[in-house]
Amino acid sequence: MEINIQKKVLEANETQADKNRSFFKEQNVFVLNMMSSPGSGKTQLLCKSLNKLMPNVRVGVIVGDICTRNDADRLEITGAKAVQINTDQFGGDCHLSANLILASAKELGCFDLDLVIVENIGNLVCPAEFDIGEDAKVVVLSVTEGEDKPLKYPLMFRVADVAILNKIDLLPYLDFDAKLAKDNMKQVHPHLPVFEVSAKTGEGLETWLEWLKIKVFEKTGK
Predict the structure, then answer these.
(1) What are phi and psi of 166, to 5 degrees?
(2) In sequence order, which residues have a C-beta less than 8 Å from that of residue 183 and are 6 or more positions away?
(3) Cα separation of 67 and 60, whole Å?
């Protein structure tokens, strides 16, 4: 019975994700789903990315958390509009599902945007299973985590279109093998692009953002 219920949930989500995809296509906006475990530094990475993207790229953000709008408040300091989704009212879901995205995207005003970034809830399991109608998925892994995360959570890295290895400024102080981490990512997803970045110092940001701007242009022509 549990398997059947889960199957129905995923099927309903896929149906809504397809509707979201059609909406985003009509609005001519690129949608990026950013996923990671808690504490990977993705909010700081987003803040630095927004500061470099705007105003040339018009960006809005949908932020997912179980509680609080702390991250949305941080992101709005950059000048980007941010819409918060809290899942505590939906039972504390550890992911954003497709049905939660559409209303938030409309609240952002997609017709005025080139790019919508969804900062998913910190979790390496559930967000990988739920399509939200995005154009690309990015997974962020920090050097304060284990090199074997891609092997422990293979689906997340398998469905990702790009990976970011964050906090590389800490490498001199940690017993973390960046090459091994990237090799493990490639073992799960051989053609996965991986960018090494420090959200704190800005190192590597330009290469990552160049990839993103190309993807936005390929879809929107903007």
Answers:
(1) -100, 165
(2) none
(3) 20
As a whole number of angstroms, the distance between CA 21 and CA 8 comes to 20
Tokens standing for residue 135: 């154009």
Q: How many domains does the chain have?
A: 1
Cross-strand partners of 117: 32, 61
C-alpha neighbours within 13 Å on the C-beta side of residue 192: 30
Q: Which residues pair with 62 in a beta bridge?
A: 83, 118
pLDDT tens for 87-115 read 876 655 677 999 999 999 999 998 899 99
Q: Which of 32, 47, 59 is nearest to 120 (CA)?
A: 32
Joined tokens for residue 163: 């990976």
Q: Provide the residue range defining the domain that includes 70.
A: 2-139+202-220
**Cis peptide bond upstream of 55, omega within 30:** yes
Choose among 151, 137, 144: nearest CA to 182: 151
pLDDT digits (tens, 9 = 90+) for 7-28: 677 788 899 999 999 999 999 9
Q: 52: domain CATH number? A: 3.40.50.300
- Are residues 51 and 74 in contact, defined by beta-carbon separation less than 8 angstroms? no
